[in-house]
Amino acid sequence: MLTKQGQYNWLLIVGGLFVFLASLSLRLWDLDRFPYPVFDEVHFPKFAENYLLGIPSNDAHPPLGKYLIALGIVLFGHNEIGDRVASAVIGAAIPLLVTGLVYRLTSKTFLAILAGIMTFADGLLLVESRYGLLNVFLVALGLGSQIFLLTGLESQLAHQAKSRWLMLSLSGIMLGFCAGVKWNGAGFWLMTWILIAIALLARNPLIQKLLSKMNINLSIKLGKLADLGTLPWYQYLVCFVIMPAIAYILQWTPHVIMVLKTFAPNATGWQWLQAFGKHLAMSNQYIYQWNTSPSSIGTPDHPIHPYCSSALSWALSMRPVAYYFHADGDVWQNVHALGNPILWWLSTLAVIAIACWGIVKMRPALIYVSVGYAANYFPWFIVKRCLFIYHYMSPSVFSFIALAILTNSLYQQKQIWGKILAVIIMTAIFSAQIFFMPIWLGLPLSPQAFYQRMWFLPNSPFSGFNWI
């Protein structure tokens, strides 16, 4: 990572590398501990193998995530390692991507590393990375899109015009690929356009005149984000509409070509293009119908899955998901998709504080994090189908960044209480990480130890939080 002076920031490089290797070690360690399939592995690795056999399946999500799982199967076979290695490696990159994103946003090395470490301490990201599931691909591609976006905004000089075009185009491509894993990846696309809208409003003469009466120059307050409002109209169109659309369509291409070998084997030229467009539309229509059909919705009294949860509950980690459970006498093994509760609760408070702070102070990093969180979280409140806590993974990353900003601000205080409070926060997060690690990795536990981690007291009048 280069500084503004063009020199390597060795502290950032070493810190980022440490975070990545620590994350990778936890994800690869004993990766085949439990036999295939675990939870939704019953779906995605099977779909991935079908691509390798040339018989694609229509399912509830676009194909890109299954291609990535298929790559692992090509390298290691259709087994526990092959099915999971792609998720493990890309999931391990998420704390590193957070580190890079925060550094691009703030140019603060310590803050960037702190954000990466907090992301490393989460449990849901760890669990999702250890199985053949899709969500880590979505988060990683979304973070990548934002790194390219901020890098492109740093290319302000005339001779850097080509570099800006390249970075912003890569951002758009990543946005398209992000939606190509799951449609909710479009939250990062929405985030980008909200940031563009804010930057354009900052340049509006009426807004400027209104704010000038309050002695506020919004363009200055927005920092590098203000440059999003200076792009020519065609750059918005190309980088953030056309490039995402092209990327989204391209990732469908292998899928549709395989389908056409069966349903239109003799089509050529214009007929082949018509058939391609027809089956592309049909595949996306199927995704829409699957996500909106009554069988995927259920009712509050009769949910279609015991671990369905409301979006409102995610920020408090009220309904995590059990992925695996096995009991052999008094030796229990459990994998629970539970976020680090101390990290989640503190980060929820932090993102609220950051949003209020951002409105008052109008600092670019605070506005950026608030928009990232809101764009990836609030749309879930209008979704009617059965939802799960892992849908909170994208907004949770921005809440971790918010907590890192707040913790760093406390540590920078001249008063000793700020430093003490920052140390207490980090100690509590790491303590929770160690305590809950057995149910993230599926380590053997006694029944009593299991119930302690579920915060459930079966022989007590006070039942506890009960994550079972």
UniProtKB/TrEMBL annotation:
InterPro entries: ArnT-like_N (IPR003342), PMT-like (IPR027005), PMT_4TMC (IPR032421). It is found in: Cell membrane; Endomembrane system. GO terms for cellular component: endomembrane system; plasma membrane. One of its GO terms (molecular function) is dolichyl-phosphate-mannose-protein mannosyltransferase activity. Keywords: Cell membrane, Glycosyltransferase, Membrane, Transferase, Transmembrane, Transmembrane helix. Its EC number is 2.4.1.-. Its main location: membrane. Residues 76-256 form the ArnT-like N-terminal domain. Residues 300-456 form the Protein O-mannosyl-transferase C-terminal four TM domain. Pathway: Protein modification; protein glycosylation. The chain crosses the membrane at residues 7-29, 85-103, 110-127, 133-153, 165-183, 189-207, 228-250, 342-360, 365-383, 389-408, 420-441. It is an enzyme of class 2 (transferase). It is a multi-pass membrane protein. Protein O-mannosyltransferase that catalyzes the transfer of a single mannose residue from a polyprenol phospho-mannosyl lipidic donor to the hydroxyl group of selected serine and threonine residues in acceptor proteins. PANTHER family: DOLICHYL-PHOSPHATE-MANNOSE--PROTEIN MANNOSYLTRANSFERASE, PROTEIN O-MANNOSYL-TRANSFERASE 2. Belongs to the glycosyltransferase 39 family. This is Polyprenol-phosphate-mannose--protein mannosyltransferase. It comes from Pseudanabaena cinerea FACHB-1277. The lineage of its organism: Bacteria, Bacillati, Cyanobacteriota, Cyanophyceae, Pseudanabaenales.
